[in-house]
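Dear all,

This email documents one entry for the complex benchmark we are building for the journal club exercise. For each entry we list the sequence lines for every component of the assembly. Then comes the predicted three-dimensional structure of the complex as a token string, followed by one or two observations. Please use this as the template for your own entries, and keep the labels exactly as they appear.
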Amino acid sequence: MVDPGTLTIAPTAGFSPAFPEDGLLDAYRLMVLARATDERCLSLQRQGRIGFYAPLMGQEAAQVGASRALSPEDWIFPAYRELAVALARGVSLRAIFDQLLGNADDLIKGRQMPNHFGFREVNFVVASSPIGTQITQAVGAAMAAQRRKDSLVTISFFGDGATSSNDFHAGLNFAGVYQCPTIFFCQNNQWAISLPRERQTHSATLAEKANAYGIPGVVVDGNDLNAVYGAVSEARARAISGKGPTMIEAEVYRFGPHSTSDDPKRYRTDAEVSEARERDPIGRLKELLITKGLWSEESDGKQWEEVRALVARTFESAEKANPLDPRSIFDDVFAQLSPRLEEERAEYDALVREGVMKP
Amino acid sequence: MNLVQAINRTLHDVMRNDPNVLVLGEDVGVNGGVFRATDGLFKEFGADRVIDTPLSETGIIGAAIGMALYGLKPIAEIQFLDFIYPAFDQIVSELAKFRYRSGGQYPAHVVIRTPYGGGIKGGLYHSQSTEAYFCHTAGLKVVVPSTPADARGLLLSAIDDEDPVLFLEPKRIYRSLTGEVPDGDARVPFGRARVAREGSDVSIFAYGAMLPLALEAAEKLAPDGISAEVVDLRSLVPLDEKAVIDSVEKTGRAVIVHEAARFCGFGAELAALLSEKALYSLKAPIVRVTGFDTPFPYALENVYLPNADRIAHAARSSVRAS
């Protein structure tokens, strides 16, 4: 990597260290698990069993590669498409499904739409829908760690669209000024709903925007697990050793719709998607594994079968969980239930008692 | 024709009639808007007048202000009201104050269209009804249609107005509600409420997606011999104070409905108005049926949102009180 002020467009193999060989099969399984979950959830949404879903398909290598370069003490500030990051941090599939369903076991108590999860136990800060807001927050957490002299980094995940947000620019500026240990990890999936990357900004790359803030910006092939791992590892090493922040632009492609509310046929061609799918990060890693003699078509078929069954089984068990307690609507507005909310809860109880509202 | 079709047709009409009108926002062009409100505009009017912007609400509103200062008539779309806040500074500090701070030299007439409100399983950030923030800002007009005809009529008035207008679109009833929409100049003037149903025992004040629920509540009350009047406010700023007072002078009871949280919600202004100007007509305490004072929840949105039963219950308790 280079000094601030110089943009590197990195060749795929230009980063070190390489992804540890003994972790490749685990990374591959995670990517397959994320893909199988995506496929299942898109179909569950069509069946009306979940209300909404935002798939990540096409971004698995970027997410798993970045996650594996981090340490458990590092803080993740995700957007709402970071399923594979959560899985890589060790979040159980059941916990993900509980959130998608908003059932009684959902850690965030049904408060948010699907995909907007958060898991404090693994330093995965809860996501929101507004775009880019997590970027400045990740910078602030890094400034805090810097002040406490804690040896960790924070990382914000965001997309190409977020680079037009206020918070992206404020975040890069703060991080540059304070040289705090943070990584700006942009998954450029080429489409912000219907707006193609080239209409989002006139810059040749997104990463070069970091340079204006005195921060190195690098572009990596986000379909290459190894390249992403190397870039994030280097960025993390720089941050930990006091050399400040880095922005990484992982070039990927959003294979699916923006969300289940979106119809990409309105703005892009099937041919473009098919062409992008030829660079599928999962296919690419599978080939590498086979070439290395670590994997075979047969083991691959078996794993897909096993993973799909796991996904189906886990969702069905989550579906059987109890529904949320409606009275929990008043919790967590403040640390303590305010007198006013106490009154409103009593009002709700009375409405239920009188049969005006269903319990 | 449904509400979103009425908006779409009106946008087509005004853009055909006035070359100064243009539309800008996220996904409004090629995609036709995430709710299809701008469908077909890009094809007919091209990229110069139907502008797909980068993902920046402050960019959208700031640029719209600049266009308006220059003499164009920009209609800015904010994809969801929940996403308007990066532009809050441009709206409340700039747009609302341009005329005033320039002593009238620089009026900035921007129309901001934005879907708002719950009932679509949109959770915290695709459901909120935060009109009160904007009603509190002097210099902004705030209107909310609840029928396809009013969507056309109020939008025509918004585009003709001289002041900035926040045009709130109740997305829950974008498609669920159909009605006749007049052709041509069917402007609905601002500051004119509509009596959606006449009644004599209790007045129910509502707007947007709460209006059909208020009407449903009135139906539920009729068999009990309670005659409810339903008033559709349509325009929050300016508010038709006379219509609100007249109705309560007739019925003596007021139920105020909105999906926004109760505390400092628009209903508080209505309650204040009635206590200031119609106190002696009131036979019972004013009742507000609103969202609770919590953020808008995803899984429990049906607990949060007012429904016809809650409205009818409130009206009954109001009638029973005196």
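Observations: The two ends of chain B are 42 Å apart (CA to CA). Chain B touches chain A through 39 residues (CB under 8 Å).
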